[in-house]
Specification:
Number of domains: 1
Organism: Desulfovibrio desulfuricans
Helix content: 10-25%
Distance between the termini: 44 Å
Radius of gyration: 17 Å
Family: Belongs to the cyclic nucleotide phosphodiesterase class-III family.
Oligomer: single chain
Low-confidence stretches: none
Protein name: Phosphodiesterase
Structural class: alpha/beta
Strand content: 15-25%
CATH topology: Purple Acid Phosphatase, chain A, domain 2
InterPro entries: Calcineurin-like_PHP (IPR004843), CNP_phosphodiesterase-III (IPR050884), GpdQ/CpdA-like (IPR026575), GpdQ_beta-strand (IPR042281), GpdQ_catalytic (IPR042283), Metallo-depent_PP-like (IPR029052)
Strand order of the largest sheet: 4-5-6-7-9-8
Mean pLDDT: 97
Number of helices: 5
GO molecular function: cyclic-nucleotide phosphodiesterase activity; metal ion binding
Length: about 270
């Protein structure tokens, strides 16, 4: 089984440019075309948040149009740049949220050999991650229901420090998330948000972040690092479930992409 994980699309309404630099709509369309053309088709595609620039309705419309061309199922969760109401208005068919934990967008996908669990770690108006009590209760009960089945858990924010200074904002109730995850050796935690690939072990669980479709953060590990990005080829992760384990591959979308930058998130060009 193959699960493709793409993240941080930053599609702007009207095909505008994210941070006045990156064409998220075009980069997503190139990524979708590549996934559709792979000789070994993914069984599904996961989008781990930050889909529309500033949660704009038009961004979700463009993203839905691109994702809707894929023959395989697509599953989405929100990121800090998304707005739940606009997100669901545009992408509800890709987000079968469990009403028991509303308004948080959490759900599971059970029809594959590999279980997929999605939890919403966002809070309206906040850039950082949050693990609110209703989500914590839902996640613990959900994982406890099948404690031995191999499982990928998807969320947007990584709860662990990355050494990219400005990206390492406090993650509220990260300790509670760690307490839950350390009970389940069958789980791998798959995040977005960082705009870089990173792998670690956190509370005994394999944990990673996906590279972005749009805007790659420069690996600057000083206290003010994490503010600069380059505009270049999209990338994604391919999770391969085989022989009872998950192998994760970093992949780049081939093609002609101009590598530009670095640019600043806090001071984008006019």
């Amino acid at each position: 089984m193959f699960v493709a994980q793409i993240s941080d699309l930053h599609v702007a309404a009207g095909r505008g440019l994210a941070f006045n630099v990156a064409d998220g709509a075009l980069l997503l369309e190139k990524t979708v075309a590549h996934l559709a053309a792979l000789p070994q088709k993914p069984d599904c595609v996961v989008v781990s948040g930050d889909i529309s620039v500033n949660g704009q309705t038009g961004g979700y419309e463009l993203a839905a149009a691109a994702l809707g061309t894929l023959a395989m199922p697509v599953y989405t969760i929100p990121g800090n740049h998304d707005r739940r109401e606009n997100f669901m208005a545009g992408l509800a068919r890709f987000c079968p949220a469990d009403p028991a934990v509303a308004p948080y967008l959490c759900y599971t996908v059970e029809e594959y050999p590999l279980r997929l669990v999605f939890f919403d770690g966002t809070r309206p108006g906040s850039h950082s991650g949050h693990f609110d009590a209703p989500v914590a209760a839902w996640l613990e009960a959900t994982l406890a229901a099948q404690p031995e089945r191999p499982t990928l858990v998807f969320t947007h924010h990584p709860p662990f420090a990355t050494a990219l200074g400005v990206m390492d904002e406090p993650y509220e109730n990260a300790g509670e998330l760690g307490r839950i995850l350390q009970k389940f050796s069958n789980v791998r935690l798959c995040c977005g948000h960082l705009h870089r690939y990173m792998f670690t072990v956190w509370h005994g669980v394999a944990a990673l972040t996906a590279p972005p479709v749009c805007m790659h953060i420069v690996p600057d590990f000083c206290p003010t690092g994490g503010d600069a990005f380059t505009d270049e080829a999209p990338a994604f992760l391919l999770h391969h479930f085989t022989d009872g384990r998950v192998n994760t591959h970093y992949c780049r979308v081939p093609g002609e992409f101009a590598a530009r930058g670095p640019f600043s998130f806090s001071r984008p060009p006019e």
